[in-house]
Fold:
Amino acid sequence: MQTSADKTNQPLLDIANLKVDFHTPTGIVQAVRGLSFTLGRERLGIVGESGSGKSMTGRAILDLIPHPGVVGADRMMFRGQDLMAMDKRERRKLRGRHISMVMQDPKFSLNPVQTVGSQIAEAYRIHRKAGAREARERSLTMLESVQIREPARVYDLYPHEVSGGMGQRVMIAMMLIAEPEILIADEPTSALDVTVQLQILKILDDLVSERGMGLIFISHDLHLVQSFCDRVIVMYGGKVMETLPAAELADETTRGRRHPYTLGLLNCLPDLDHPREKLPTLNRDPAWLA
Amino acid sequence: MTNTAISVDRLNVSFGDSHVVKDLSFTVGQGESYGLVGESGSGKSTVLRVLSGLNREWSGNVAIAGAVQPKVRDKAFYRNVQMVFQDPYGSLHPKKTVDDTLAEPLAIHGIRDAEARIGKALSDVGLPASFRFRYPHQLSGGQRQRVAIARALVLEPSILLLDEPTSALDVSIQAEVLNLLAALRQERKLTYILVSHDLAVVGHMCERLLVMQFGRAVEEMTVETLSAREPQTAYAQQLLTASAGFRRTG
Structure:
């Protein structure tokens, strides 16, 4: 499909001026307003508050924006292929196979009346055109690789029989079984305990460093993004406030260069090392959205 | 610490075969803010439910303001102890206005000056009076949590039980709600028990905290021990390390 020559230098994803508009009876709601970024084989964090358009960005890449949403972009390229020029059928072929997404809550994203194992196997059979037996074997290996101790037992469990952390690992196994080049993780760990959260991050981290996957990590947790990602996009009201190396979020010396919104977000977190009587609250400047 | 507001002695709670709180004892002084931390399933919310009288299946001793509490509490108890729940989207009745929500506890307790009290409760939590006849869906998450706090405060209790009051909120809104809770506590000399999985939030709000695991108390520490990151037990240390964020090894 792609020319092998510049495979390594070419970004996995190249997006320019992405817009998501919802045409509602009371007017147009702009969920994403002109977002541009490229994704290499890295961990890219997208942070922002609820309603900042971070989830909609992930969904727009996968063509999962529900009606009445309309996606527009000057450029949206996946490894040199123009996503905007593709029809629904071609986009569907990419989805799950080459670009996939882990949703926030496993409780609502798994089919409640199908065993978790068969759901993982189904993903493999569809994308890899494999037989039932091969799919089962691959699914068991996959469950093992997301650190599930007894894959054979878990395979036959229904979603309500697994814990939140295990459900999230099942979701990740399902999304990774087709070996996508890009994984979009939408708050994959925010429903989980800190220790389980770190295990899941370790799995994602290994995939990026070992398989060269591109990861878009959507989160509202600044501490987590700062410690886990390579680069961070800070979004507010559907716009990018700034893009910065993740390590600089914690770096006091670069504070002068930071966008006031990023600083505002950082300041309003309670901090064990800097106890304060009163937490500063965020002052939003309408000019940021101009 | 002066007087004891809450004392829990050898509390045990079982649901069927699972023993979720095991021999838990702690005391909270009057006007103190006490944190309960631990992972899901450690029993921290169950402790709050026992204290608030929502859970009636327990054994051990619970005393509030020196009075030993029976399994079924009387009306006066609820006037003194109120709870704020985690999810502001789930804890307000969707078909009742803010006014209805705040008027109900007053009606139950036969308090007359509802008008004035509701107005005061709203202004105490920083909501404009115009919000009084709104429905929950017309409010943002932070505003809903303010209504939930106003509902708890309208009876003028002395003890507030807070079950993850900010974990469903954005960080900027969390800061506002935490500031509000801190200011209210100072103003009214309230006693708090705060359940949270976020150690930074507990460190900000509380003077002492208890780390729980599998229903047992692992370690009680002061906020100074927490910020110095010098807990005595391995589990508390592990929890502290895990909350510091992701670390790449090798």
